[in-house]
# Entry
Amino acid sequence: MTAITSFKVRRSEIDKMLIVHHSDYLKWFEIGRRDYLRKAGIPHSEINRLGFYLPISEIECKFKSPAKYGDEVAVITKITSISCVKVVFEYRILNKANGRTLAVGKTIHAWTDKNIKPLNIEKAAPQIYASLKAFEQK
# Structure
């Protein structure tokens, strides 16, 4: 299953070249990821409230075309792999007006406890694991 999150590029995201600064694409990944988790029925805040975390262990972003102030963009987010110890999210950012791909990327996250110690989420919180697996397969 994918989550599509749309918004307009804000002035604060533009650099001196009048295009979106590269660091903002990583923030957009986070926006897409949080929306995905919310749509899966387990908001990021709930995962944290239960004492679990999903720190990023790897991140990748390939830039294809620049976004500009006022553009409406869509972040398409999906889980491509989930196990009891990690989750892989993939992202595609599009310009909604012309369908052009602006960036693609992925983040790999480890399941940890509140002390950032790795854990088996299937054993520690089977409901979270089952919900994500079910949403991924829709």
In short: The CA atoms of residues 2 and 42 lie 15 Å apart. The chain has one domain: 2-136. The radius of gyration is 16 Å. The chain is about 30% helix and 35% strand.
